[in-house]
Amino acid sequence: MPKKIIITIARQYGSGGREIGEKISQALNIPMYDKEIITDAASKGDMSPEILKTADESAANSLLYTLAMGSNIAGATMHFGYKMPINDKLFILQSELIKEYADKSSCVIIGRCADYVLRDRKDVLRIFVYGDLESRKARISERYPDIKSSQIVDTINKTDKRRSSYYNFYTGNKWGKFDNYDMAINSSTLGIDGAVDVIVSAAKRLIGE
């Protein structure tokens, strides 16, 4: 590729955002980072991957911490004697890694406020993937048969609420708000492959192919 492109994907649960990211990665022959970020963060911070997994995309929800740091912690200086919650250590480690990935090569990054972390860069295409409830229910039922049908809607709501709280807490912005992204893609209308085609076409246009 003549130019570098970093594609960040925020997504509603069950919208197929991760699969879209995988297919974009394959189409453009660039790496994708998702769960790998946890392993790299554990190594970078000399911490247990299992402990970090429990904190992944979950805001600290500490009133003391929020009052001390303001609406988000990006770039904040820690107060002497304050013990940073594991969630916040993970966010900082992940943010550092996301910047390293972006500096190294073109890539796809799933979730973890990557659009915000890389907000000052000009080589980023910020995507939000959403879908209608029935399509998301069907997708979750197919991919996660261990989730009972009676629990799917509750799982969707809880997961989206967790992702929203995480994003809102750490960025001070609103998750899913259209002007935080370059493109909002309805995977229910376009389908997974259709969404991939649109995003890949936009990425190639931006890098001059």
Index terms:
alpha/beta; Rossmann fold; 5-stranded parallel beta sheet; 209 residues; globular; 5 strands
Summarize the structure.
The protein has 209 residues and is α/β, with parallel strands linked by helices. The chain is built from nine helices and five strands. It has a five-stranded parallel beta sheet with strand order 2-3-1-4-5, sandwiched between helices.
Question: Could you please describe the fold and organization of this structure?
Answer:
The protein is an alpha/beta fold and about 210 residues long. It has a single domain, classed as Rossmann fold (3-Layer(aba) Sandwich), CATH 3.40.50. It is built from 9 helices and 5 strands; from the N terminus they run βαβααααβαβααβα. The chain has helices at about 15-30, 35-45, 50-55, 65-70, 85-105, 115, 135-145, 150-170, 185-205; strands spanning about 5-10, 30-35, 105-110, 125-130, 185. A 5-stranded parallel sheet has the order 2-3-1-4-5, sandwiched between helices. Helix 1 packs parallel to helix 9 (about 185-205) and helix 2 (about 35-45) packs across helix 5. The longest helix has 21 residues, at about 185-205. Residues about 60-80 have low confidence and may be disordered.
